[in-house]
Amino acid sequence: MAEPQPDSPVAPATGRRIAGLALPALGVLAAEPIYLLFDLAIVGRLGALSLAGLAIGALILSTLASQMTFLSYGTTARSARFFGAGDREAAVGEGVQATWLAIGLGTFIVLAVQIVAVPLVSALAAGGDVADAALPWVRIAIVGVPAILISSAGNGWMRGVQDTVRPLRYVVTGFTVSAILCPLLVYGWLGMPRLELAGSAVANLVGQWLAALMFCRALLVERVPLRIHPTVLRAQLAMGRDLILRTLAFQACFVSAGAVAARFGAAAVAAHQVVLQLWNLLALVLDSLAIAAQSLVGAALGAGALAHAKSVAWRVTIFSTAAAAVLAGIFAVGASVLPSVFTDDESVLDAIGVPWWFMVAQLPIAGIVFALDGVLLGAGDAKFMRNATLISALVGFLPLIWLSLAFGWGLLGIWSGLSTFMVLRLCFVCWRSFSGHWLVPGTAARG
Q1: What pTM was computed for the model?
Q2: Collapsing DSSP states into helix, strand and coil, what is residue 111?
Q3: How many separate domains does the chain show?
Q4: Which of 2, 266, 359, 382 has a CB 3.0–4.6 Å from the CB of 447, allowing a cystine?
Q5: CA angle (397, 244, 215) in 5-degree steps
Q6: Do residues 256 and 213 share a domain?
Q7: Beta carbons of 92 and 157 less than 8 angstroms apart
Q8: Is residue 6 one of the residues assigned to a domain?
Q9: Are residues 57 and 171 in the same domain?
Q10: Both 280 and 413 in a single domain?
Q11: How far apart are CA 156 and CA 73, in angstroms?
Q12: Quick one: 268 and 224 in the same domain?
């Protein structure tokens, strides 16, 4: 095959090219957590009851949305192959089908949650005033689910055609509008109605639908057929099934870890939560490189450039490992200072050392794992990723979590479980990458 040209979908994966995809993707990943912190700060001034209501509502919304990430990751894998093969219309067509899927699934979720909202909120909030505060927020905010899923599908196909700048612009625009509206509607400023907690939900809704409409407009501008193709939808759902099961395995692990940590006292669970949130933040940085790997690997395989796909895998893994090593160094050097940024409670600071050093040790491993996750997801190897994650969770993480509870190992046992989980995933993705089974050329993604 001819050497890829610098402006082609399979151009050399230079540091500049990888960064050009990864940095905007990082912005998209970081936008929501940043906005949620702002939303919490606004609602927090209404008092503890409103804050608790927001926490319950946000838990429901984020849990539902997180199960649908296949609309982004699965669509990227399929779209990128067509883009690499030089068929932009088919690449964007994957986005059309994913958007129809988003509308259908989103509408179903809205109806289902509206029907079960009262018992669902009551169960999570244990009834009482918190449930009463959360219910109106949930009923309003859930209407934004189709918009969230449309944006997820839009991110998917745009990453597939190696455009991560427009999604950042759309997402930031939506969150900016929400951020402007939130205090106006919560507090009734500038003549707006004072809606209090419900105002937060309305502000969320407006921003989400604005971003979704921008993604829909991007599809229309491409002038591709908008009709539904059942065969493509079925293929996307098949990949979605595997990615949903993978996501459920992650959630089972982290919910179990939090539940067990809570049984070792307030200091233990607080220390666990601080380090876990830091871990999640650092994972966003590494995930952005994984997204670049997805897009570049998918395009290379679509073009039949297997050697180039392997080159991309190596390069992104090296970049990700180097970034993770730098982060590990920063948090190792700052181990005596940085924890006090998050708390001044001596009991929490005493407990935080154990998970902190586990996090530092895991970061270089995570750099490799996350990069190769991106490589294999870009290849559409969703079935293998599902099995690897489930086995790692069932064999590594969950047994150690529950043994920690039984034998009183505390945070040492919990974070040993997380480390075992990461090491097992490392073994799986490295074996798969070296095996070459993921190097399947053409436009048909695996799974």
Answers
A1: 0.87
A2: helix
A3: 2
A4: 382
A5: 130
A6: no
A7: yes
A8: no
A9: yes
A10: yes
A11: 6
A12: no
Asked if 201 and 188 touch (Cβ cutoff 8 Å), the reply is no
* Residue 419 belongs to domain spanning: 249-435
Q: Tell me: do 315 and 424 sit in the same domain.
A: yes
Among 195, 228, 261, the domain-final residue is 228
Place of tokens 């079935």: 383
Does any domain span residue 7?
A: no
User: Which residue reads 């205090």 in tokens?
Assistant: 183
- Dist. CA 10–CA 299, nearest whole Å: 6
Tell me if 76 is assigned to some domain. Answer: yes
pLDDT computed for residue 3 by the predictor: 44
Closest CA to 140 of 114, 120, 163: 114
Neighbours of 442 (CB within 10 A): 12
Query: How far, in Å, are 40, 116, 211 from residue 176 at the CA level?
Result: 15, 31, 10
Same domain, 106 and 205: yes
Residue 330 resides in a domain: yes
**Geometric angle at alpha carbon 371, from 320 and 342, rounded to 5°:** 60
Would you tell me how many other CB atoms lie within 10 Å of the CB of residue 221? 9
Amino acid of residue 301: L
> For the chain, what percent of residues have pLDDT higher than 90?
54
CB atoms within 10 A of CB 314: 13
pLDDT value of position 445: 59
At 310-349, the pLDDT tens digits run: 999 999 999 999 999 999 999 999 988 888 877 777 888 8
Residues 78 and 201 in one domain: yes
* Domain identity same for 173 and 113: yes
Give the pLDDT score at 6. Answer: 47
Residues, the chain: 447
Lowest mean pLDDT among 137-151, 154-168, 277-291: 277-291
Across 6-10, 37-41, 135-139, the highest mean pLDDT is recorded for 135-139
